[in-house]
Amino acid sequence: MFPCRQSRVFSVGHSIMNMVLERTQGDSASPSPSDIDVPPAWRRAIEHIVARPGTAMILGAVDTGKSTLTRATLLALHRAGRLVAWVDSDVGQSDLGPPTTIAMAMIRPSTALAETISPDAMRFVGAVSPSGHLLQTITGVHRMVHLARERGAEAIVINTTGMVHGGPARALKWHLVDLIAPDYILALQKQHEIEHLLRPMERLPIRIYRLPLSARARAWSREARREIRQQHFRSYFQTATLHAFALTEVSVQNTFLGSGRALSEVERADASSTLDTDVVYGEWCSDGLFLVVSGVFRAHHLPLLKEIFGIGRIHIIPISDFEHRLVGLCDVHNDLLALGLVEHVEWARGILHILAPRTDRRRIKVIQFGSMRVYRDGREYAVVHRL
User: Fold this and answer.
1) pTM of the model
2) 231-261 burial, b for 16+ CB within 10 Å, e for fewer?
3) Smaller CB count within 10 Å for the chain: N or C?
C-alpha cells in the first residue's frame, strides 16, 4: 500500500455520491464543507457513462480538476454496481500509485470506498513528466487498460497528465486515443485551450464532452507539487532495506549495463590514462563504448581514445549519475513491483545495491532505470545523462 494522495481520494466518497446522484433526485441533504463541486455538465456526462459504461479518458491542463472529475465518475459507477477500473497516468501527481508510475486499481461493487485504494498493477515511467518519456507513458497506459479489460472491467476511467500543449503533448494524447480507443473523452477547459487536441478527434467514434471547470478548482504551484512528491517518496522509502542484484541474474533496461562486454582491467587502465581520470567501469556495446568515470576527464582526449580503441562512439557517464538513481523493480511482464533507489554499485563484481520496500524477491526479473535521482528523504534531482 502506498501512502499517497489516494489516502484521501475516497474520504468524502459518500458526500460526493450525494452530490453526483442523490441531489439530482431531490435529496435535501446539505453537503459538508469538504464536498467537491460537481457542475451540472459534469453530472450529465457522468450519468451517460453510468447508463452506457465504457472507457472514459479525462483530458485537461494542470489545475483543471481532472482528479476531482475522475473521483466523481468512479463513485457514480461504483454506486451503480459496476465493476470499474481506475487508471491513473498522472506520473507527477498520482492519486493511486507512487510518483513516476502509471497505476491501475479494480474497484468492485464490494469495495469499501471510505478506505484507501491500492493499485492492482503498475508500470514504471521513471520521471514526473511524460515529456521525453512518451513511449513509456503510452505503453504503460495501454498495459493497464489491457489488464483492466482482461479482468472484466465494465467501465474504465483514465486520468491523464496536464501536458496538453506542444508537439509531444499532441502526439501523446492522439496516440493514446488511437491505441486505447476510448468511448468517451471528458475534456476540461476554461474556454478553448485544448481544442487543438479535440477537433482532430471529432470524426472518431468517440463521444466528446466539453466540460467547464469546477468552481472549487485549486491551483498548485510547482513548488507545492514538488513538496507533495517529496512527502510521498519519503513515506514510500521510510521502511526500505537494501537488496543486492547481480547484473547476471536480472534483465537491466534503460541503461547500457549488461548489454555488452565489460572492459578488462588493462582496457580500463588505458582509458583512465588517456582521459586522465579514474574509469571505474566500462562496457563494449554494439552501439559504442560506455565508460563510467569518477572525476573530471579531458574531453579533448576523446579523439585519441577513439583511435586507441578503434571505435567511433564513446559515451562518458559520471559515477554520480548512478547514485540514488530511481529504478523500477519489475516482474517478467515488465509490470512494476516496487520502486527502488540505487545505493551503490560494486563495479568489479557487477552488483547493484538497491534500497527498496519489502517485496517478493523471486518475482523481480527486470530492473528499469529511471531518469531522475531521488534521495531517501524524498528530494528530487534531475539526471542529465541517459545511461
Assistant:
1) 0.88
2) ebbbebbeebeebebebeebebbbbbbbbbe
3) N
